[in-house]
Amino acid sequence: GEDVEQSLFLSVREGDSSVINCTYTDSSSTYLYWYKQEPGAGLQLLTYIFSNMDMKQDQRLTVLLNKKDKHLSLRIADTQTGDSAIYFCAETNTGGFKTIFGAGTRLFVKA
Amino acid sequence: SAVISQKPSRDICQRGTSLTIQCQVDSQVTMMFWYRQQPGQSLTLIATANQGSEATYESGFVIDKFPISRPNLTFSTLTVSNMSPEDSSIYLCSVRTGEQVEAFFGQGTRLTVV
């Protein structure tokens, strides 16, 4: 079945870049997403990438997709304390609208 | 985009009782889903709520424990039945439209069973 894996924790200093990695198993994945969840809040879609793309940039966020290795990464430039949250990698496959989530990476930003 | 309202936002319930969670969307949506997020864990899909027919449940979830209704394209309910402390979780409603890439999420219902 489908599976999405992420490392659980990442700690960076304010102003540095953060890179959060994700691997997935479903070769028919159509869209891959990064969601952000702040404490006590719901999920907020940060960005997504279509499976025929290699890279997508949106302000401080850069998404890289290596479809051959089924590896997705999210780079946050100039990380701020307000970026501290849990970041979920997710995918939706062809033929359905189910979204499968990874376990989430908790990002700690040290001032 | 879609704005989702979930009620209640949180509740503390006695074991053995049932709780019904409501999800109201401000526009008609194609698909509605219910997820569970157990403490410190990721989101697990419980079921797809189908308008006018029985929900489609994922492996490990059954209708007797999590009955779902979806009477129209803007509203759904999830009931957590005969609750035990293991049901303590955040329950999230999610919606998608056929044209959009994004899945929208409600703020969630934080359930504690004592």
Biggest interface between chains: A-B, 18 and 20 residues
Structural class of chain B: mainly beta
| Main beta-sheet strand count, sense and barrel state of chain B | 7 strands, mixed
In angstroms, what is the radius of gyration of chain A?
Answer: 13 Å
Order of helices and strands of chain B: EEEEEEEEEEE
**What level of helicity do the residues of chain A show?**
under 10%
First-residue to last-residue Cα separation of chain B: 37 Å
Question: Oligomeric status of the shown chains?
Answer: heterodimer
What key phrases describe this protein's structure?
heterodimer; A: 111 residues; mainly beta; six-stranded mixed sheet; 11 strands; 59% strand; B: 114 residues; four-stranded antiparallel sheet; 50% strand
Task: Please characterize this protein's 3D structure.
Chain A has no helices and eleven strands. The radius of gyration of chain A is 13 Å and the shape is globular. Chain A has strands at residues 4-6, 9-13, 18-24, 29-37, 43-50, 55-58, 61-66, 71-76, 85-93, 99-101, 105-110. Chain A starts with a strand and ends with a strand. In chain B, 0% of the residues lie in helices and 50% in strands. Chain B contains no helices and eleven strands. Chain B has strands spanning 4-7, 10-13, 19-25, 31-37, 43-49, 56-57, 68-72, 75-80, 89-96, 104-105, 109-113. In chain B, strands 2, 4, 5, 6, 9, 10 and 11 form a seven-stranded mixed beta sheet that branches. In chain B, a hairpin with a 6-residue loop joins strand 5 and strand 6 (56-57). The mean pLDDT of chain B is 92. Classes of the chains: A mainly beta (111), B mainly beta (114). The interface between A and B is medium-sized, with 18 and 20 residues.
